[in-house]
Amino acid sequence: MPTILIIDDEYLIADILSFALEDEGFQTVVAGSGRKALEILDRERPDLIITDFMMPGMTGLELAETVKSREVHMSTPIMLMSGAQAYMGEERPDLFDEVIEKPFDIDNVIDKIRALFQARQ
C-alpha cells in the first residue's frame, strides 16, 4: 500500500485529501508545515508527497528543493497543490511531477496520483 505525505497548513484540506485517498486504498501521513514534513520524511519514506505552496516557515518550493537535495528522496514524486502560485510549480518540472490548482476536483487528483504510480512501475 503506497504511502502519501500530505503537507498543508489548512487542516480541512489536508483531512479531505487524507480521507479520500485512504478510501482509495492509500496510506496517508499529514503534516501542517514543511518543517514538520521534513521530520516525518525519513521515518515514513513516502511514495509520494503532496504539498501546498503557501505555508508558514517554509514554502512548498523550499520544501521540494530540500527533499530533492537528499539522495534517498531524489526520486520521490512531488505534487504541488496551490491557488495563485500554481504557475511557479509549472515552471519547475525538475521539482514537481504534477501541479494541481486549488480549488481542486478530488477525482482529478486521484486520477493524477494513480497515473504517477503507474508511470513509475
Task: Give a verbal description of the structure.
- The chain has one domain (3-119): Rossmann fold (3-Layer(aba) Sandwich).
- 44% of the residues lie in helices and 20% in strands.
- The chain is built from five helices and five strands, in the order E-H-E-H-E-H-E-H-E-H.
- A five-stranded parallel β-sheet has the order 2-1-3-4-5, with helices on both faces.
- Helix 2 (34-44) packs parallel to helix 3.
Features:
single chain, 121 residues, alpha/beta
Topology:
Layout: E1 3-7, H1 11-23, E2 27-31, H2 34-44, E3 48-52, H3 60-69, E4 78-82, H4 86-90, E5 98-101, H5 106-119
Parallel strand pairs: 1-2, 1-3, 3-4, 4-5
Write down the CATH topology: Rossmann fold
- Write the CATH architecture name: 3-Layer(aba) Sandwich
What structural class results from the helix and strand content? Answer: alpha/beta
Number of helices: 5
What is the CATH C level class, in words?
A: Alpha Beta
Task: Tell the overall outline.
Answer: globular
**Share of helix, binned:** 40-55%
User: Whole-number average pLDDT?
Assistant: 94
Sheet bearing the most strands, described? 5 strands, parallel
Distance between the first and last residues' Cα: 14 Å
CATH homologous superfamily grouping: Response regulator
Q: How many independent structural domains?
A: 1
